[in-house]
Amino acid sequence: MKIRYCLLTLVFLIVGCTTVPMTGRHRLILSDEAQENAAGATSYGQYLSESKISKDKTNTALVKKVGKKIAAVSGCDYDWEFNLLENSEANAWCLSGGKVAVYTGILPYTKTEAGLATVMSHEIAHAIARHGAERSAQNTLLQYGLAIGGATLSNNPNRELILLGVNVAGNVGVILPYSRKHESEADYIGLLLMAKAGYDPNEAIKFWQRMASAASGSQGGLSDFLSTHPSDEKRIKDLREHLPEALQYYNKLK
Ligand SMILES: [Zn+2]
Q1: Is 203 an active-site residue?
Q2: 178: CA distance to ligand 1 center in Å?
Q3: Which one of 36, 81, 123, 185 is the catalytic residue?
Q4: Model-level pTM?
Q5: 124: confidence class by pLDDT, cuts 50, 70, 90
Q6: Ligand 1 center to residue 188 CA distance, Å?
Q7: What DSSP letter does each residue of the chain carry, written as one string?
Q8: Average pLDDT over residues 8-33
Q9: 54 Cα–ligand 1 center, Å
């Protein structure tokens, strides 16, 4: 039994270990990218059919323009799509394979084209770094860890309690929507992407400052975006640290 688990672990590590583009971080992914992208396309179609696509021609054109510019420097040959959806939430997302949605509710905070580029490049960064797939690999390993734990603990009278503890710890540490690690990685990749696409990366800091002050002012409709995208001093401080690198790309284009 143990040998089988060891072999399986070895196979996971050999097959699944890849690196994140632009950061080179090693991570484990157990799914196939083509399948992830197909799933992304299916969910996107479903989501769009249930959503109200914005009739605002100016902002729709802006979303598509910014999206195309970022896609062009992403290094990913996806079947990209960009849509502006009528939704009061301050939110945006990008599914596997480059399927992007921006909600009209975030436009009061993006304010400018570069502000919009900040949001879209951050979301696109999550997709090209395949954060969703990494999260699901972690989930698989967690389940697998529980299976091993279950086997070794089978005679322990506190087995249920111990497994519950492992499960809770795993969920808190690993599986919550976009961990801190993924958020800061998307911030970093997003900052470089927007700069390469010709947007001043200084604008990213201004955007996150606007989000931070909106959060402290407790305005309605912001909670979802902020719960998965915490605006804090650390995020802005990290962005400032990466600014010189991003500015090199931006200044080269001028
Ligand atoms: Zn994010």
Answers
A1: no
A2: 6
A3: 123
A4: 0.81
A5: very high
A6: 11
A7: -HHHHHHHHHHHHHHHEEE-TTT--EEE--S-HHHHHHHHHHHHHHHHHTS-B---HHHHHHHHHHHHHHHHTS------EEEEE--SS--EEEETTTEEEEEGGGHHHH-SHHHHHHHHHHHHHHHHTTHHHHHHHHHHHHHHHHHHHHHHTTT-TTHHHHHHHHHHHHIIIIISSS-HHHHHHHHHHHHHHHHHTT--THHHHHHHHHHHHHHHTT-TT-HHHHHHS---HHHHHHHHHHHHHHHHHHHHH-
A8: 76
A9: 23
